[in-house]
Design a protein that fits this description.
Layout (H helix, E strand, L loop, with lengths): L29 H26 L2
Amino acid sequence: MVKMTKKMPKIPAEPEMTIASDQKEFQPGESVDEHANLEAANETLNQEEIRQQTENL
């Protein structure tokens, strides 16, 4: 049996996944700007993929 410690988070009975894209969360900088651009591109690609999957139903 595994002993629960403060380092081990409890797993919720009904886990849920959320997506957040708050680009104002980070301080300005070159690597942060690059990461924000990648997040925006991924969001656009995901929207297109979901649209395509919906059309294929």
